Each structure stands twice: as structure tokens, then as C-alpha cells.
Amino acid sequence: MSVAFRRESDDEHKEPEFELPIPVGPNLVTERGLALIAARVAALEAQIAAESDPDAVKKLRRDLRYWTTRHATAQIAPPPAAGEAGIGSRVTIRLKGKERSFTITGHDEADPAAHLIAFTAPLARAVMGATAGERVDFAGEEEAVEIVAIG
């Protein structure tokens, strides 16, 4: 029989499973972000204890490795200087005539739909260190963003 038609097992044709990617750079978090990571670790541990399917356990353990690494490397970001935008700040801006507000967070806490953006996002990087009343460059435009308020 030709080798081309021989099949050892189904496993050799599966896509390889990789670890979840860890964002590059420091794992800066807010206190809320640290609590969310700890809760995620506890939830995954409980799911693993209750799961009987070996494939499901394997996937849960991969997720748990990611979250335990994120918990172990988490550093609570220092508070920004008074009146300055930084991690943990609620920032209101005016961009192209529209006002919008968001909170700057760590990677794992970010949720753009809930107006939580990671400190590495381009908009967050543009406003960090700025104060109310300042205009900052953004997306290649000079003074494109006006900082309305920082809370």
C-alpha cells in the first residue's frame, strides 16, 4: 500500500495548539484589574475541578496558565500626578468635534465597548501625561485631541 494513503491517527492532522499570547511589555494594572485577574484564575480552577472531559480540561488549563502568568506578573500602576491623565484616569476628550470619555486601564481589563482602553492603545498613549485644556497630537494630526477633563 502506498504511503500516501496510510493514516496513522487523527491526531497527526490536527492543528497544533499554542499558548495564549502574552502582551509585550510591563503588565501594569489598576487595582480593579488585579482583582479581575484573580477572579478569573479562581473561576478557571473551579471549572477544571468540575470538568470531566479531558479535551475541555486541556483547554481550561491553557487558559489558566495564561491567567496565572498575568496574575504573577501584574504590577499596580503608580497613580498619575494630580490632574494628569494616566492609568486609572477617567479622561474626557474632544476629537473632531465630538466629546467622549474613557478610562485608561491595563491590557486584561480593557473593554472598548465599556469605554475602558488599554494604556498601550494609540489614543491612551496620546493623552497620557496631558492635563485638562491641553491639545495633543493623534493619528498623525497635530493637536487633534483636546483634553476636556480628567477624573
UniProtKB/TrEMBL annotation:
Signal peptide: none annotated. GO terms for molecular function: DNA binding; kinase activity. This is Nucleoside-diphosphate kinase. Coiled coil: none annotated. InterPro entries: GreA/GreB_C_sf (IPR036953), Tscrpt_elong_fac_GreA/B_C (IPR001437). Residues 83-150 form the Transcription elongation factor GreA/GreB C-terminal domain. It holds the Pfam family GreA_GreB. Keywords: Kinase, Transferase. It comes from Sphingomonas gilva. SUPFAM superfamilies: FKBP-like (SSF54534). GO terms for biological process: regulation of DNA-templated transcription elongation.
